[in-house]
Amino acid sequence: MKEQLNKIKNNILAELERTETLQQLEDLHKKYFSRKSGDFSRLIRDVKNVSQEMKPAVGRLINDVKKEVEESFDNIKKSLNNKMAGTGESNFFDLTLPGVDQNIGTLHPITQVKNDLDDAFKFLGFEIYEGPEITSEGYEFDNLNFPLNHPVRESMDTYWIKQQTTKKGMEKFCLRPHLTGASVRYMQTHKPPFRFVYPGRAFRSEATDAGHERCFYQYEALIVNERISVAGGKILVKTILERVFGREVRIRMRTGFFPFVEPGFEIDMECLNCLGKGCSVCKHKGWVEMMPGGPPHPNVLRAGGLDPKKWQGFYINIGLDRLVMMKYGIDDIRLMHSGDLRFLRQF
Ligand SMILES: [Zn+2]
């Protein structure tokens, strides 16, 4: 019985392939499914000869095959109708046929929040700039006031690629471990005052877990003018976060050490999940670390060709992945780069 069913199914599918008109399709359907003389109908009638215990299994099999074949008939009918409507061979166009479903993708949550940040900064007059992902020790560490013995220079954190002799002598190249190097490139090639952002990927040789990835997204901003106060920087951060989260947020700044800023700040946002009461998202502190920031260190301004006595500034270094996780309540950073459609379809 099973063999017979398979054979008849293959015959039907093969004949369907050759069908070119709706009339042929109708004839084919009659040939197999007409109540009296259809080959398939006859097979169904034969079920009564099957032994009692085999009947349920055979019945299921017949139903499965019938469903598959009927679907093929429907598909061929749809495509024949569309073809005829398209070529003008027929003036018949069946408006009652359901449309063909298109799978429409959505933007990755990181891209969505990056676009939100772009909009928020553009609204405040910032330019969007892009630096290279492969860069040099000079740009990533020397220019940014990292001491020669700073541990992130070691291979355990930074992906070093090669050494090469350039105009500056022997240079070490790496995948950028942060974006900040791009800010000096911008300063060297533009005239102050300026305000700009430079989003992108950064790379670090780290053990991955729910909070760490080897490749992650950052979003940095630098504003340089003759006079910028730390309070001005704080208002900037608050304005940007409120645009991204679409609600009022509270922020606080604590002192923190980062070689490229002086003084350096850790900028926290009041946990949006518990509104400061304490929950698992904020580890019961009521505040979530959002980003470091602060005025550029005089050595960094000098590396960018600016006189630190004349120019001041404010850096914001946003961990984009973390911001996205906070916005959507995602608890594992690795999901973002997994390409798992079950995850991505939620956005
Ligand atoms: Zn909380």
UniProtKB/TrEMBL annotation:
Primary enzyme class = ligase
InterPro entries, sorted? aa-tRNA-synth_II, aa-tRNA-synth_II/BPL/LPL, Phe-tRNA_ligase_II_N, Phenylalanyl-tRNA_Synthase, tRNA-bd_arm
Which CDD domains does UniProt cross-reference here?
Answer: PheRS_alpha_core
Keywords noted in UniProt: Aminoacyl-tRNA synthetase, ATP-binding, Ligase, Nucleotide-binding, Protein biosynthesis
Its catalytic activity? tRNA(Phe) + L-phenylalanine + ATP = L-phenylalanyl-tRNA(Phe) + AMP + diphosphate + H(+)
What is a single cellular component term in the Gene Ontology annotation? Answer: cytoplasm
Query: Which EC numbers characterise this protein's activity in its record?
Result: 6.1.1.20
Q: Which residues form the Aminoacyl-transfer RNA synthetases class-II family profile domain?
A: 111-346
Q: Which Pfam families does its entry note?
A: Phe_tRNA-synt_N, tRNA-synt_2d
Q: Which GO terms describe its molecular function?
A: ATP binding; phenylalanine-tRNA ligase activity; tRNA binding
Q: Does the keyword ATP-binding apply?
A: yes
Question: What biological-process GO terms show up in the record?
Answer: phenylalanyl-tRNA aminoacylation
Query: What protein name is recorded for this chain?
Result: phenylalanine--tRNA ligase
What organism is recorded for this protein? Candidatus Kuenenbacteria bacterium RIFCSPHIGHO2_02_FULL_39_13
Its lineage opens with: Bacteria, Candidatus Kueneniibacteriota
